[in-house]
């Protein structure tokens, strides 16, 4: 009798065990099915996962991880969308910048076709064409450089650069234009060297000097002060021009931004390129109004900050 009862109890326990096992498997399938439905609604309709409906355990962890992944995908999609909008705006700005010289060139070409055009006027138009082509070439080259810097495809050299030589190299292309404008360049160099890329840094410095030259009246001057501290080498550039309008200061280094005092030949990308170059070499570039005109401050840090 006892053996029959024990057998019955054993059979009952086995039945209960399999019933519980079946119930757990069915529950897992239902939860996985529900998780799949929730994920589908999240991906298709953007409805968040109802994490509170899941119990603690592997499925809850899985659901939590899936939400994190989806959040990262959403952030990536938002970033890509912003980059697309920025690219579209940049292309619109580039098109606008190119349209002006191209309009002038088309007009000049049309006038050059006239057989009655005087020789002196023909020479003037030819010179204008050459000037506009030079401007377009500079614009395209500068945009390519900025694009390469943004993409991180340019590797800056890390070598000792004489500060005195750097300033001379940056100012050399502007010497004739400054002579014509009767402007003076005053250099006060009390720094030995920085570690960086001579060519790229000279281009950045040259763009700043060019900006100062264009906003300094005839007979004015541009001063360059270089000094060294234990933490950084500082190069300060000041001109005797009109300085910055208060509303322009926050946007001085924005691409294609043209302030109130921008010259007719300004594209608004020279200072943006200068900042990109300096930043890529562990440096900072700031602009402000000095005692007389504009003031730019460059700092090349001796340690990574």
Q: Would you summarize the structure shown here?
A:
With 305 residues, the protein is an alpha+beta fold. The protein has helices spanning 2-45, 58-112, 119-151, 163-171, 175-180, 198-214, 270-279; strands spanning 159-162, 184-190, 193-196, 221-228, 232-239, 283-289, 294-301.
Q: How does the overall form come out from the CA principal axes?
A: elongated
Major sheet, described briefly?
Answer: 5 strands, mixed
Strand order of the largest sheet: 2-4-5-7-6
What is the assembly state of the chains in this entry?
Answer: single chain
In N-to-C order, the SSE pattern is HHHEHHEEHEEHEE
Strand content: 15-25%
> What Rg is obtained from the alpha carbons, in whole angstroms?
34 Å
Number-wise, the strands total 7
Structural class: alpha+beta
The residue ranges in which pLDDT falls below 50 over 5 or more consecutive positions are: none
How much helical structure, as a percent, in the residues?
A: 55-70%
Indicate the mean pLDDT.
79
Number of helices: 7
State the distance separating the first and last CA atoms.
Answer: 86 Å
């Amino acid at each position: 009798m006892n053996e029959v009862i024990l057998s019955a109890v054993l059979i009952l326990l086995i039945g209960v065990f399999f019933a519980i096992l079946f119930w757990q498997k069915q529950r897992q399938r239902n939860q996985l099915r529900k998780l799949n439905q929730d994920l589908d609604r999240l991906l298709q309709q953007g409805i968040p996962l109802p994490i509170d409906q899941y119990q603690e355990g592997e499925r809850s962890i899985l659901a939590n991880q899936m939400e994190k992944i989806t959040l990262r995908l959403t952030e990536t999609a938002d970033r890509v969308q912003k980059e697309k909008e920025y690219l579209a705006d940049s292309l619109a700005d580039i098109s606008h910048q190119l349209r002006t010289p191209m309009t002038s060139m088309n007009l000049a070409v049309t006038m050059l076709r006239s057989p009655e055009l005087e020789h002196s006027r023909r020479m003037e138009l030819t010179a204008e064409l050459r000037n506009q082509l030079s401007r377009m070439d500079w614009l395209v080259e500068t945009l390519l450089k900025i694009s390469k810097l943004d993409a991180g495809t340019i590797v800056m050299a890390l070598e000792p650069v004489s500060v005195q030589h750097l300033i001379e190299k940056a100012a050399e292309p502007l010497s004739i234009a400054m002579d014509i404008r009767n402007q003076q360049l005053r250099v006060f160099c009390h720094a030995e060297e920085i570690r960086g890329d001579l060519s790229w840094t000279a281009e950045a410095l040259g763009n700043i000097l060019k900006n100062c030259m264009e906003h300094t009246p005839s007979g004015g001057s541009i001063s360059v002060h270089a000094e060294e501290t234990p933490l950084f080498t500082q190069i300060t550039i000041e001109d005797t021009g009109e300085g910055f309008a208060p509303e322009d200061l926050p946007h001085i280094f924005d691409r294609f931004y043209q302030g109130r005092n921008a010259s007719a030949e300004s594209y608004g990308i020279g200072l943006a390129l200068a900042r990109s170059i300096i930043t890529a070499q562990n440096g900072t570039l700031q602009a402000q109004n000095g005692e007389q005109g504009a003031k730019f401050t460059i700092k090349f840090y001796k340690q990574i900050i």
